[in-house]
Amino acid sequence: MVFRPFRRDRHALAGAALACGLALDPSSSHSQSGPGPPEFNRDIRPILSQHCFECHGPDAARRRPSGEPLRLDDPASALADRGGFAAFTPGNPPSSEALRRIRSTDPGDRMPPPEKKLPISSDESGLLEDWIAAGAHYQRHWSFIPPTRPALPPVRDSSPVLNAIDAFVQSRLEQADLEPAPEEDPGALLRRVSLDLTGLPPSPAELQAFSGNPSTFAYHKAVQRYLASPRFGERMTVFWLDAARYADTDGYQNDAERTMWPWRDWVIAAYNANMPYDQFTVEQLAGDLLPDATEHQRLASAFNRNHRLNGEGGALPEEYIVEYAVDRVETTAAVWLGLTIGCARCHDHKYDPVSQEEFYSLYAYFNSIAEAGTGAGTEAPPLLKAASPLSAQNPLAARTSALQTRLREIERSLPAALEHGVDRSSHPEIRRLESEIASLESRIAGSKVSVMIMQETDRPTPTYLLRGGQYDQPDMSRKISRGIPLALDDGSVPQPAGRLELARWLVSPRHPLTARVTVNRIWSQFFGSGLVETAEDFGSQGSWPSHPELLDWLAVEFIESGWNVKHLIETILGSAAYRRSSSASPALWKQDPKNRLLARGPRFRLDATALRDQALALSGLLLEKPGGPPVKPYQPPGLWNDVNQNKDFHYLPGTGEELYRRSLYTYWKRAVAPPLHVIFDASGRETCNVHIRVTNTPLQALALMNDETFTEAARHFAERILREGGPTLSSRLAWGHRAATGRLPEPAAGAVLTGNYEFYLRYFGEHPLEMRAFLATGSSPPSDSDDPTALAALTAVAHLMLNLDCTLTR
Fold this sequence. Notes:
Strand order of the largest sheet: 1-2
Structural class: mainly alpha
Shape: globular
């Protein structure tokens, strides 16, 4: 974002800052993106939201003064005459009382009050002054306006433009007088694509082939190959499980075991089949309500059974009915609306136009669900006997589902005959299908397990506003009807009558948020951050998009493609912005440290699942078996012992292939989430999480250097290097480095690897007991055919390769 001086007397300050190389953060929500007066959405709303809305915003109970409350989020209130003055007087900053109070030197007169510790800076007050002088024009919040496809902006240099994405990016770079980085090294680029789309590194053969022919055609073929891989669905599901708060236990103190993995496999299968995102949404939110719902559609509805469940003896059922419904509202809002709507459980939202009553209107859609242990007259949650939807694991289940669909089609074609008493069992095709289905089901009954799914109660449960959000404080005078927030209702669709209609409303083409929120979240998977940095908040407290027009273009493209996820991803990965080198000059790092302008390629540390899976893949240990019950890889001894009320429920690591399955399938206990995942910033799955968080701590390095998984993987990686790396030490080290990083080592790096090998060759030759203990790490035995001293030395070097920054980073 170009730094534009706010007032004429600030030109010199801006020029001095640029001349001195000071970092002007282009992502700042208070800086402007181009010429012209300040815009309310881009420049003014963030200031008012941060500093003023707590007392002068949407929350009616907190507005001040109490006699005639002032709303700075509402132009009718902010511009109203209040006895000769107004908060903002369009075109007349000196007559604007709010600006006078902001700049007052009298602590008793100044706003915000000093005790709030939210002072408005001189630059911010300058923006407010310029905005008032230009007419104090308000705008509806940008994210609540349905997106329209913007025209592609003109650019001076079209050479970096490979698709529409690049037109928007190049236009912004030219405004900032920045040159984009060149395309990434072929091997590193292929590794980037492979890790992004499958969570695994490319094979050495793939690296060699692409590096020898890094053409545009070869690049697109590689993208399409990875999109078609069964590993694609597994990679995408990693992020969806965090959003869906998926786990293999209930949470709270009991944290009892539950079976939800068939739903996890449904998600994998849906991504691999490229299920349209609107269908993906409807089936998970309301698959149980679809007409003639299939087994897999009912299974999809388990999405909203993933929340925590309290099975403690002293738990009050009435309280947790409320908690479960609230969780579903908050999760739905975070995943599809990108709003922190849970704030309105207890009071009107302080920053966004969502009232407490509107919160309970959404709550009413989720308040008539059969729950466990909720007192007399209630229904237990239904259990669906389901197998994994992954056809590669359960081909018989896939065949059964297809026959069941055909059976329903025939039954729907015979309504009149059935109404007149014709025996359905006399229909020969029905008899044949039922016989074959029964036969198939008898062959897979052992692979079916019971999974909680959604189901409406027989009678809708009345909904009342809860005072302070307390389950036992209903306002019986305020019965709440189902409905969507007024700020999101443009009148293009009727008020949703039930949960199914609500799900369909979320993916209606005119919906302002769902497509934006979804493409932003998918974008963040490939760039490390969304076009809107606050993926969880598209409201007033959220970040202004770095490229607003690009966000809208992608949202409309997503909708008009039929909500095609793979098409969206192929479009993103086809851009020059994605394919750029992640290297940058010192000047560029200073001007755009967070890469918000996308002048360079994305660079960030791999997440926990990819770090472990990469090591297993490089070692050759990874078992690429899809789906099924969760597995228990290596974990520290005594895990769970101190936090488990059921003393017979201990963590026992698996054996054999269970130790080498993909991290996606790791058993997830909420009270003690897998420690390797937690160390590398994984969500605890207690609640919905849609924000990718990356930290850097010493514990991460210690885990990578000492964890049994990585040490065992290094030994098998060393064995691969010996087998496949050629006859010489130099060729072997080059092969291993390229397999791990996508690049051949620079001479200096090669010298370090060689010296490391020679050191450990001497060391292990002098310490045979340590050598044998080192090689014995893990459950798999070392190779008998290799010289143990040389294998141990190469294992140490392979371990170093697995810990290189360029291996841990993509």
